[in-house]
Amino acid sequence: MPEISDTQERAHKARDKPAALGPDINLDKYSARAEEHGKIKKLKELAADVREKVTSAGVDVDESHRSGSFFQIDHSVIQSSANQKGIEVMSVTEALEKYDWLKDYWWKNVAVDMDKYTAQAELKSNHGYFVRALAGAKVQFPVQACLFIGKDGLAQNVHNIIIAEEGSELHIITGCTTAHNVKNGLHVGVSEFYVKRNAHITFTMIHNWAKDVVVRPRTGTIIEENGVFLSNYICMKPVRDLQMYPTTYCAGKNATVRYNTILYASEGSNMDVGSRVFLKAKGSKAELIARAISKGGNITARGHLIGEVPEVKAHLECRGLILSENGKIHAIPELEGLEEGVDLSHEAAVGKIAEEEIQYLMARGLNEEESAAAIVRGFLDVDIKGLPQQLQDEMKRIVESSERQLL
Question: Which residues are 70's β-sheet partners?
Answer without folding.
Answer: 80, 145
